[in-house]
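Checklist before submission:
- one chain only
- standard amino acids only
- sequence pasted in full

Submission:
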Amino acid sequence: MATESEDLLLIGQKLKATRKELGYSQKRVAEEAGISRLRYQDIEAGRSSARTTTLINIGRAMGLELMFVPQVWVPAVTALLRPDNFVDDTPGLVFTQLDDDEEEEA
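Returned file contents:
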């Protein structure tokens, strides 16, 4: 299982990649999300955690919606978002984490 700091880094990397794909500045995302640029910078760098509402607002600032998907559905949802035979340049944020029991089975 990933540590909290590893999770924060992964979320930050996904946010940064999506922001760059869209050509948005940190300032733009922060303003549209209702937070300071420095706060957004810390979240994107994985130095700081964020409230769920803050992540929702950041996602919406980039045209994304935060969703909780049952883990058993993750492969199907991932396939729908990025099928092998379809070129899709729509940014997406996919983050999964297995429970300890599921990691042992994998």
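Reviewer check: The chain has six helices and no strands.
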